[in-house]
Fold this sequence. Notes:
This is galactinol--sucrose galactosyltransferase. Its EC number is 2.4.1.82. The chain starts with a strand and ends with a strand. By secondary structure, it is of the alpha+beta class. The protein has a seven-stranded antiparallel sheet, with helices on one face. It is globular. Among the domains are: about 190 residues, no CATH class; about 210 residues, no CATH class.
Amino acid sequence: MTVGAGISVSDGKLTVLGSSVLTDVHPNIEVTHAAGDALASGAFLGVRSDQIGSRRVFPVGKLEGLRFMCVFRFKMWWMTQRMGNCGQDIPFETQFLIVEARDGSHFDNRGEYGSSDQPALYTVFLPILEGDFRAVLQGNERNELEICLESGDPAVTGFEGSHLVFVAAGSDPFEVITNAVKTVEKHLQTFSHRERKKMPDMLNWFGWCTWDAFYTDVTAEGVKQGLESFEKGGVPPRFVIIDDGWQSVGMDPTSKDSKADNTANFANRLTHIKENHKFQKDGQEGSRVDDPALGLRHIVTEIKEKHALKYAYVWHAITGYWGGVRPGVDGMEHYESKMAYPVSSPGVESNEPCDALKSITTNGLGLVNPEKVFSFYNELHSYLASAGIDGVKVDVQNILETLGAGHGGRVKLARKYHQALEASISRNFPDNGIISCMSHNTDGLYSTKRAAVIRASDDFWPRDPASHTIHIASVAYNTIFLGEFMQPDWDMFHSLHPMAEYHGAARAIGGCAIYVSDKPGQHDFNLLRKLVLPDGSILRAKLPGRPTRDCLFTDPARDGKSLLKIWNMNDFSGVVGVFNCQGAGWCKIGKKNLIHDEQPGTTTGVIRASDVDYLPKVAGIDWTGNVILYSHLGGEVVYVPRNTSLPVTLKSREYEVFTVAPVKELSSGALFAPIGLIKMFNSGGAIKGLEYETLSGLVHLKIRGCGVFGAYSSVRPQRVLIDSQESEFRYEEPSGLLTFTLRVPEEELYQWNVAIDL
Length: 758
């Protein structure tokens, strides 16, 4: 028998805190206790093997009859979720797996915080990096969980095999996951948990990305037109991302053109680190200006001064451009770029094919010498910083895993590139200005110590009707894993679009940056005002938005009966978004997003206080468990006593957002709960201070923003003071809804001092 912190292998069973999770465990499977003060009840799984090779697959044991949720790479760049109850349901390239080792369905019925004689038991499997190898999980037709181990270099064949998968368990799924990742952080010492990273300030402001507005046809003039268009509508972006289309690129004479509709030409390579003629003052195609003041700096300076823009980011691929850096090109010889041809792993090959990967594989990629890549990044980023650029969106990151041959393997190559990239970011962009994109592989996740923002799913596809519900569900479930490493970014969207409100509501509870990719003149300002305050700031929730506990193992895209609930926290309340995502999903047979139900029906679920997992942390020690639920669309205030729930019914592609506010009982018996700016999606994000004088019946609030502020009060207040001035207010006797209006403040990020005398 081998044992490690609540995990044991004995009599052919993997037992976790008393519950059997895997059976028929192979005799070469070992358990190693996590060294030091492990934060999780957990241990490492490994294999004893005499095999060598750059790719090996080891069966572990059978998984049968237990619900699980995993996130796996359905294509080279991105993950999505899969639910099942046996090993053969686990896809190739699974990078995170959570198993319900003991039934938690009682939670659906009772809905209490930690109130069960035998609480649910959640077991997390994290395949990690060991030496020059990367482990992932997959299932086989015998229902066995397998470990697939790859180096990505035919010459790298020897491995130790003792620390391949970290297994952790406990009764709180979110704590188990967080503590498991933190234990792996201590073990590997190659990455940092999200909580230890500096978040760039751009997350707190509204932004605009040029991609869907212009694609690679973006110009300096187009950027100016876009910003002016928003400003005219009174919703000013405070950051801009100039996406693909600003760089100096070109095809080799022998390359095969690869440009689909609304995409880049993947055959292009970088030919200069400076901008192309479209971003030079009076630039002419085929010519280059040497004066930096006439380059990118001229447009960045102008838009920052004219539009009070705080941050400007630009796009580049981790290898410079899709096709890399052209070898031997004038001015970039010292990067020692050489042609390389991607070789993707069998697991990736078995999932969705990709036009970009196909083109890069055909035309090759000019790969900068890993020993020179810091010089490349530093020269690129220092030039951008000198032009007023504050950060970069670094795309196509997973391509590195295909280029490990001759470089010691995929893990070693990725780590060299990420270390160089982060060193350059640290030197040139002091606000930690980087967004990681197309980067859903563990080679990168377990090798990044500074990057704090990561695109959380495949793109927003404005013209693909199957993609919208899939997008929301994928981001939510991917965030369960990705949110431990970085703040997930839900991507841009169009404010003027049939699904715009659906996307906007999801981003409001995601804790993410909020930015759109509208074409100039094509905006829904009424929608944007639910997300953005007049000063350009947003009411950002505090955490990565994740599915509620009772949604972890249901399939809100395919099962025809489940709603998706996503929870998050504000300073003094919670927020839950509820979405009907039924009808479309990634098809494992067709290997693409498909609508499988053209007319999914109405779906009903419930919402309750315990959906907000961390609500007790902000509710205070004397909280009784009672809450107010305020529905954004319905405009209803509902008092929900402890351990009770409220039914929610949504038609296909409908949503609702609920503010979940703990109720405070004062000495007089009066009950009070502040809701927030009720016209905003995340209304509770406006409350920045809350104090009760229980004896006198005074409630003191600090509130950011403007518009109609709402609160629940069981009694009509005596008066409301705003910055010491008595204010008019409305009180609705039946519902207890108290409202008053805050004007637009003169100062940016101003906080009103409000006193309510009950």
